[in-house]
Every structure is written in structure tokens, then in C-alpha cells.
Amino acid sequence: MTDVSVFSDIQKHVPIVGDINLKSPLAYKATRFVAGALNITQMAFAEAYINGLEIPDSILCAIMDRSMSTLFKHFPSLMAPYEWVLKESDRLAESSHELMKLQYDLPQAMLNYMMGDWQVIYPKYSMGLWEKGAIDLEQSQMHMLDQVIERLGIVDGDHILDFGCGWGCVANYIMSKFPNVRFTGLNLSHQQCEYIRGKMQDPHSYLSGSRFTLHEGDLNDAQFSEKFDKILSIGVFCHVGNLTNTFQKLSTFLKSDGKVFIHIFTVRVPNNVSSGFTHKYIFPHGRYWNYDAIPSYNRDLKTIDRWYINGKNYQKTLMEWLRRFDESQEMVKSLDYGMDYAKFRRIWRFYLLLLATAIGSCDGEYNGNGQYLMTHR
Ligand SMILES: C[S@@+](CC[C@H](N)C(=O)[O-])C[C@H]1O[C@@H](n2cnc3c(N)ncnc32)[C@H](O)[C@@H]1O
Question: 0.70 exceeded by the pTM?
């Protein structure tokens, strides 16, 4: 493993309200009580913004940054607003249909413009890699995917499963590099699958032809008759609540010498965290696994390497999405979100600013992206 003692510096900050992992009854109860009270305060602030509180972005971000860095460094256990964040869920992914409605099946014109839709890079809803000198969003996504190719060790001829394949960007880019790679994509979002079906009919797209297969469906129910050389999953495990059963399932899809690559939003604090705001408005039951969570579930798959990617990369991606979101408001306001446009706009601005600030706070060292390379145990 690349980094064995990532917490050595970080864990010196003992949570003052009690270490949630020790679960000593009194400290645990006190921690849960204070975490609940803090969540109510944060939600009141978010609701005020959504309902029209006028506050410049710079001041909003400064308030968020100051409170995030204090929480991450000194009170990480308060960042778990609900008890379910701390333990595994019953299903692989909870609230998956609600998640599609609230997030992934939103009007695609808005999402596609925000994330960018180019010739090879289709909308990609995950971190772009900027630290290698990318000059724009499109190039940052190419650099990110070049690194995935290298870390997963993709070779021509591989058959790859993309678990939560979004708009097909990852498959399209990788197939543009390898003439004999085949992809199978799994996605529950009907609107994203419709985008992919359009590309499957477009002779200029690498998704057309026989190298790409699409499965529209829920990862809770996914079954495949064949086994894959590689499995990758980028930006999906914040929706996975049960690592044990998910790894068990993925292991049945993987050839005996196959490899799995997982890219997640992660936190380098002792427990998993979540946000009351994103749970209500953006990602129902979304949780951010702590950096050690994946390697600690070595039952059916084992982690053989891992990497932490500084949060400044995702912060820059999110700020670029916000700039494009703001730039496209003339088009965005004409779409149907099932709610008042002004409210929708404020929810999304709060979401992008909150996430960008959280992931960039503490110089990106606490909240960033984690990547894991796994094999059969
Ligand atoms: C943040 S996006 C990432 C998409 C893509 N991997 C990328 O990097 O652009 C998460 C993806 O997971 C899919 N997803 C979330 N929950 C799912 C579920 N229960 N079953 C299948 N797909 C799911 C979403 O529809 C979406 O395509």
C-alpha cells in the first residue's frame, strides 16, 4: 500500500465531544446530541439561503470554510448528522429511486452544460485532475482518466464493467485509446441511459458498434452472466451503504485474476461523514466514507493499493461547474424542475459552494478523493 500511516498527523486532534468509535455510552450520547443540534443549525442556515437570504459568495464561503476546518480538525465526530452514516445499510444502496428523481434524472440540458459535453469527453460527474497542469475542465477530465488507465493497468482487449457509468464518458474515452477494449455500463438513471442510447446510434461515438453494452438498472439487483477482466466505479460509492455486500457482489462479476478500481469522495477523519443539506436536497442517503473504510472490508475483495488525491482538484472542478451553471441560467430557467426555478437555482448554488468549500478546506488534506485498487482475496 502506498501510504500506511495517513492518520499519523491528523489523528492527533482528539474529538473533544467524544470519540464516536469508542461508543462509551455517555460520550457517544453527548456526541450524538451535539451533532443533531449542529445539523439543525446548519440546516436553518441552508434553508435561509434557499429562501432568499442575500449573502455574497465570498462571505458564504468564508463562513463555511471557517466552520468546516474547525470541525474537520477538532470535532470530526460532529460531522455525522445521522446515526445511519456510521454503520452499513441493509441494502447495497438506499433510496436509489428517490436519488434518481432528485439528482440524476434532472433535466439533462442543465447537467450536460454544467459538466461539459465535448467530442470524446461526455458529461462526467466526478473530479477532474488539475495538478498535472490541465488548462481547462475537458483536459482535467482527460488527465483524470489517463491516471485511471495507468492505475488500473488497462490493456487492450480487456472487458470492463463500469459500475455507475453516468453518461458513458469513461467508456468512451478509454475505448478511444484502446481499439479492442469492450465495456459494459450499468446505470439506474433513465435520462443518462437515454443520452448513452443516442451516442450508441452516433457513428462518431466509440459507444456505437458492438464494443459497448448498456444495462439500465439498479446496482442492488445487478446480475451479469459473464465475468470481467476489470471493474471500475467512479464517484458511485457515496451512494453505496453496504460495502460488505457490494464487494461480495462485485467479486462474483470479476475473473479470478481481475482487478477492481474504485474512486470515491473521501474524508481523512476517523468516521464517515454526511450532510443534512445534501441528504435532503441533493443525494438522499449520500455518505462520504472515511479513507480507511474500503481497505477495512477485506472479505471478498482486498485492497492492494490506494491513493489520496488532494481535495483542491475536486474544488477546482466544482468551481468550474458553478461558473458554467451560472453562465447557463438563461437556458436553465426554461427547464422544469418540479419546483420554483429561483429556489432550484439557490439549492444548486448552495450545493456547489458547500461541496467546493468542504473539499478545499484544510488545504485539501482532510476531504478529497480516494482511489483503491482491489483484487480477489
Ligand atoms: C456521480 S455519478 C458518476 C458517473 C460516472 N461514473 C462519472 O464519473 O461521470 C454516479 C452515477 O451512479 C449512478 N447510480 C447511483 N446509484 C445507482 C444505483 N443504485 N444503481 C445504478 N446506478 C446508480 C448514477 O445514476 C450516476 O450515473
Answer: yes
